[in-house]
Amino acid sequence: MVLPGVEGEAGLGQAAGEQVRPVLDLQLALDDPREAGQIGDGELGQGTTEQRPRVENERWLAFRSHYGLDAFYCLPGERGAHEKGGVEGEVGRFRRNHLVPVPQVTSLAELNALIEQWDEEDDQRRIGSRARTVGEYFAVELAPLPAEPFETERVFHPRVDRRAQICVRTNRYSVPVKLIGRQVRVLLHSNELVVFDGRTEVARHERLIAKNGCRLELDHYLEVLVRKPGALPGSTMLEQARQAGRFTPVHDAWWAAVRKAHGDADGTRELIEMLLLHRSMTHQHVVAGIAAALRVGALTADVVAVEARKAAQTDRQPAVPTMDPATHPVGHPVSAFRRHRLPHRASAGHTAGRYPASAVGGRL
To answer: Most buried pick, 18, 176, 288, 316, via CB within 10 A?
Structure first.
């Protein structure tokens, strides 16, 4: 797992990231991690945790207790380089086989998905002439995971400012404008940030690592932009939406056409009405609806909605099954009707004499 930072929740998140496996190593070798605690007084000697003084913090103790881990702290610097040779060797092997050349990805989530796929493939490899695969050795030698995962996030309770933003560790994140002035609950994970209003999730952002940054979601400001459409062109949230691929060139082409037809203010309002469709439809269906509306020159959000629903219905429409002539010969259903349907109707009070012979192909 690749994480964007080295804060406490990132270190715990990296260890907890091994929950993708159904088993867990009960001994954890740590290369002097700061999130575990501070080095205590006394000489650093060889041996277990008790022989290497360290004041462990509460979160790390809770993490170790949850999984039943025995932590082994490596010596810092060159003195402890020999204590984790197997770890360094395995990391080097994985890097040479999967990360050279450097994979081209658009986000950490995509990179972690690739790493998880490569990790599953490595479970099927054999080391030398050993009888079992790596995954089979994991299943035999390691302990099962607890039923409940350990929550590694940190909790904050910021208040939403007048710009519909919250500040978490010097970075600002947007929330829906209806929450201005209210206090919300934030769960800060190692790679993302989730905002709750009560028990309802209202926003989810990729975590910012650099200081004094901002991450704004265009959808959070649509109700305000309807009244102030002139604030949309050149805005930070629009630029970030373009960079993230949520505001595509198809959106730009439709916006340019509708502004040319209705003027800047009314055209931008029509664009915002169209963007509201993303709240109830998938992104790909809305983009398909915009493209269809552009082809016919229909520059209203209502037409885009109709075309988007058509695209959604096309995706949901089941395929028509084909009949195999070898297993379903022509004429067989007629004979089945004569043999099974007519006696049933006769038993219900209809006599065979009431049906003309020409209509049923002769008496049974």
So the answer is: 288
pLDDT of residue 338: 40
Phi, psi of 42 (to 5 degrees): 110, 170
d(Cα 215, Cα 220) in Å, to the nearest integer? 11
β 23-24/143-144 pair status? antiparallel
- Residue 22 Cα to chain centre, angstroms: 20
C-alpha 270/C-alpha 264 separation (Å) is 10
| pLDDT attached to residue 146 | 79
pLDDT at residue 339 is higher than 70: no
β-bridge pairing 54-56 and 37-39: antiparallel
CA distance 325 to 84: 67
What gap in Å lies between CA 312 and CA 323, rounded to an integer? 27
The answer, yes or no, to whether the previous bond of 101 is cis (omega within 30 of 0) is yes
Tokens of 11: 């270190």
> For the chain, how many helices (H) and strands (E)?
14, 13
End-to-end Cα spacing for the chain = 74
In 22-94, beta strands by DSSP E: 23-24, 27-30, 37-39, 54-56, 70-73
pTM: 0.67
Helix, strand, coil percent values for the chain (each to nearest 5): 50, 15, 35
pLDDT at 159 over 90: yes
CB 143 within 8 A of CB 68: yes
Q: What is the pLDDT of residue 150?
A: 80
Degrees to nearest 5, angle at CA 224 with 220 and 229: 115
With tokens 């067989």, the residue in question is 332
Contact in structure between 215 and 171 (CB atoms under 8 Å): yes
Q: What DSSP string describes 89-117?
A: HHHHHHHHHHSSSPP--SSHHHHHHHHHH
Task: Dihedral sign for Cα 221, 222, 225, 226, please.
Answer: negative
